[in-house]
Each structure stands twice: as C-alpha cells, then as structure tokens.
Amino acid sequence: AQQPGTPLSDQEYRQFFRSLRATHRASTACHLRALYGCQNPLVRRLDEYENHGVIPEGPICSELPGTPFFPDFCTFSFYRCTRKRYFIKV
Q: What's phi and psi for 13, nearest 5 deg?
C-alpha cells in the first residue's frame, strides 16, 4: 500500500489518465448526441459500435436498480448522458 500523500506510481498514473480519457470521450459522445440527435450518422455509428454492430430496439432494460426500462436505445443513451452515468450498461 502506498503512503497517503505520495504521488502515484507510473502504472497508477497510466490507469488514472486512461479513466479520465474514457470519461472525456463519453462526455464528447454525449455532446454530439445532444447537438445532432440519435439519427446523426456519427452518433448511429457510435451506438452500433457500443452494441456490436446493431442498435437494440426497445424496450431497453438497464442494470440500474429502480429504472425498469427505456422505450429505445436513444432514450437510454440520453438518460446516461444527462445523469453523467456514461458507463451504465443495457
């Protein structure tokens, strides 16, 4: 275990910045979704990539307790973006 107040190791820094870049990329995708909507070709490609090539049709169930379903993947994605819960899965 590291001493509190000491800098991260090289490996810990790599992990730390890797997670920041992932969050930044997710936030950027959300901005694109908000600006252009789910039917934008770039947004659709991102959604397809996230879902192994096919955007799921609704209703969409998520791993969120208390949120049973969303009518479609677009609504689910907007929910993740507005809540800044970028890595919630279907």
A: -65, -45
